[in-house]
């Protein structure tokens, strides 16, 4: 059995649930002794089952009156089944959804790429003439921002707010960084469309609230 086959047939989950046929079981055991990833899946799953079992036991023992025991043991078996199913669902979710997405994000971050950033400089702070940024789900937004520097400030913070005024991001900028045009990345998220605000605050000293020194607006358009 190859690792791909193990993943595609959910061999680790089915192994834990004792659902593999004799031959599949042998083949998977042979594979996971050599495959760290599958061995880890099996070990994590087995630990979960053991822990769930222990917790069930202690909750049964914690039952105050002995005559209640039958009531608890009646539920213990189906509940254990539910927990095992939940664990299997979690493992499947990790393998099918989380891990491929993580791997995809890492691959994207490592691949060479030209990044298009939307310049906010000179953007009107009022009115309809605001720069437009196209947002694709799962991709960050890139903006070019100039910070109007002043020796009074020990640092700067960019505060990005969504169309509904909700907080989107806070980014700290050192005076050194502020000397050049910044490339600002707003992490991938569900960017709802509308007019966003990027406010630049100057920080005079630690613990003091920032002083707003500039405000840019930009329109986020959902491309999908
Ligand atoms: Zn494997």
Kindly describe this structure.
There is one protein chain. This protein is α/β, with parallel strands linked by helices and 224 residues long. It folds into 2 domains: 3-110; 118-222, Immunoglobulins (Immunoglobulin-like), CATH 2.60.40. It has helices at residues 3-8, 11-16, 22-32, 36-61, 69-110, 175-178; strands spanning 118-119, 132-135, 141-145, 155-161, 167-173, 182-186, 194-203, 211-222. The strands form 2 sheets. Strands 2-8-7-4-5 form a 5-stranded mixed beta sheet. Strands 1-3-6 form a 3-stranded mixed beta sheet, with no helix packed on it. A hairpin with a 7-residue loop joins strand 7 and strand 8 (211-222). The longest helix has 42 residues, at 69-110. The protein is elongated and about 70 Å long. The structure holds zinc ion (ZN). The site of zinc ion (ZN) has 6 residues, from helix 1 and helix 4.
């Amino acid at each position: 059995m190859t690792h791909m086959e193990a993943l595609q047939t959910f061999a680790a989950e089915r192994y834990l649930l004792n659902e593999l046929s004799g031959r599949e079981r042998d083949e998977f055991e042979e594979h996971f002794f050599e495959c760290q990833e599958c061995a880890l899946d099996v070990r994590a799953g087995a630990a979960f089952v053991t822990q769930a079992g222990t917790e069930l036991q202690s909750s049964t023992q914690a039952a105050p009156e002995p005559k209640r025991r039958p009531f608890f043991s009646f539920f213990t078996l189906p509940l254990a089944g539910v927990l095992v199913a939940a664990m299997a669902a979690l493992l499947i979710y990790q393998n099918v959804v989380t891990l491929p997405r993580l791997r995809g994000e890492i691959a994207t971050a490592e691949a060479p790429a030209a990044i298009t950033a939307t310049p906010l400089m000179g953007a009107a702070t009022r009115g309809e003439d605001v720069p437009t940024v196209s947002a694709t789900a799962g991709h960050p937004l890139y903006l070019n921002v100039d910070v109007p520097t002043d020796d009074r400030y020990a640092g700067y913070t960019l505060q990005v707010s969504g169309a509904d005024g909700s907080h989107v991001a806070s980014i700290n900028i050192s005076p050194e960084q502020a000397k050049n045009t910044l490339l600002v990345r707003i992490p991938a998220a569900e960017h709802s469309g509308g007019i966003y605000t990027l406010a630049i605050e100057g920080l005079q000293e630690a613990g003091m609230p920032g002083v707003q020194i500039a405000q840019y607006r930009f329109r986020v358009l959902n491309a999908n």
